# Entry
Amino acid sequence: MPLKVIIGGMFSGKTTELQRVLRRYRQIDEKILVVKHQSDTRYDNGDTLTSHNDETETCISVSHLMALAEEPSYESSYAVFIDEGQFFPDLLEFIKLASMKDSKYVYVAGLDATYEQKPFGQMLDIIPYAEKVQKLASICSKCKKPAGCSKRISDINGDILIGGKESYVAICAKCLHSS
# Structure
């Protein structure tokens, strides 16, 4: 079954787009499974998928997607929606299982690059399996043109810092390289 990948930088509307599509499935009462990484606790305790503009959907939180394979909610689902795909170490393995072996529609949203503009997690690894890839842009915080990059503004060190506007800004490649 088809895999759709939604990628982009911070504040580009990835979660909002994922929610838009999953709501279409809910309107026709199709069984869906909505998943986010358990480390994403920015807005709640883990049971809601929340966009930066505060739109919410009920979800489950896990650290590994393959743990879902034995769950009744996975087995009965027609489509699986995954947010923050870059954080799942078994994303590619799960995509192969869900979309190819188990014939489920799978939608994955996530960052394609780190704040250092390096590939993030397995997001780029799943693209060869995708029927459709949608690259979203936000608005550059400096020049107000389309922005495909994220820049960390926090002083906190580490490869991964889960955060929002207090930690990152959207920035275009030109402004990123000129700063």
